[in-house]
Amino acid sequence: MAGSNVREGSLDAPTRHPIDWQSESFYDEQALNDELERVFDICHGCRRCVSLCHSFPTLFDLVDESETMEVDGVAKDDFWKVVEHCYLCDLCYMTKCPYVPPHEWNVDFPHLMLRAKAVKFKKEGTSFRNKMLSSTDTVGKIAGIPVVAQTVNTVNNIKPLRKLMQPVTGIHAEATLPRFESKSYRQRFKGSGDMQADPGETTWGKVAMFATCYGNRNEPGMNEDMVAVLEHNGIPVVLAEKEQCCGMPKLELGDLESVAKAKDANIPALAKLVDEGYDLIAPIPSCALMFRQELPLMFPDDEDVKKVQQAFYDPFEYLMLRHKEGKLNTDFPNRLGKVAYHVACHQRVQNIGLKTRDALKLVPDTEIEVIERCSGHDGTYAVKKEYHEISMKICRPVTNKVKQAEPDHYTSDCIMAGHQIENGLRDGSHPEHPMTLLRVAYGI
């Protein structure tokens, strides 16, 4: 069993190795199982991550219930029981594990889980449900047809019907499903009379928004609030000429070829905007993470990917950088009161600090209660029938903290995590995106 002594190098800043997903050795099952056993043995000897997701309790139960009470007593076929519960939140890598590179043990648990998912996907493919849930562009276009949108939204809110459909669809009857809008944000943006300021008249930047599937088809109001706040601060906003899903849902499936196709569609359009002097933002932390971390690790030699990575910002990171330069409008006529703020995992691991909290704290007479625990949602994990109850258990500490805070508002940079909290509270309240709260504070 691996010991838990901290070796030389473990206090250095974590670093990530490129993902060698295009090599044959990446898909070698024997090599994969050997690496899984090695890393699982280290995790078993440490157990610091037991409170994060369900992967680690699953692993430790398998070890403790084996004949040897060591990893060598766990059947290789059972390794998948650990892999399937990893939704690549990255928290173990970024906040818990002392053995990440440059430590000599070289543990990158999330990317090892990604490799296992990729091997399984290449060998077996995936279910229709998983394909549907991860095909956000296609589903959004179909469900966004006016009559279809109305029907889908109605059906999604009829619990007896959802229970009947659960065995067929594989989607849990109690899971919160997104609402579909018949008029996408891209359609709204073009006809909304947005600010047409001359970029040359601004002294500190212009922004191109990657609207995201969710912001485009499910909650366009979130994007509208973001544009309103940016424009209120004198920042012109455009949308990328072409856009499709960032690829995160496919990444979580291990469908890396589909991630590559999404990259080929998005990167040229975004790189062109960077060349034109635009900074890039996205309203969903997972989408920003794809462009800032995952794609650069999958395509380390692609210069356009690097260019986009360097120009991509979290929206609140962007606003606080402007505040640091003394160029953010801090005239807030409205107070927010007490805000319970859930920090999204995919924002935490971008290493930008609590910029959303810092921005909201600029509003006078506003108290921010920060909650740094995973909501267990992941976009698709929480809606699957076999994982929903586990996801709600993961979320329970978050909902308990919201209840204890008794806030005027609760919010998360990941609006899907916000709805997961809403599902746990079940008190008729609704989450608000932090940018929506900032717009309220501005009174615009």
TrEMBL record:
Signal peptide: none annotated. The keyword Phosphoprotein does not apply. Keywords: 4Fe-4S, Iron, Iron-sulfur, Metal-binding, Repeat. Residues 207-292, 339-414 form the Cysteine-rich domain. It comes from the Bacteria. GO terms for molecular function: 4 iron, 4 sulfur cluster binding; metal ion binding; oxidoreductase activity. It holds the Pfam family CCG. InterPro entries: Cys_rich_dom. This is Fe-S oxidoreductase.
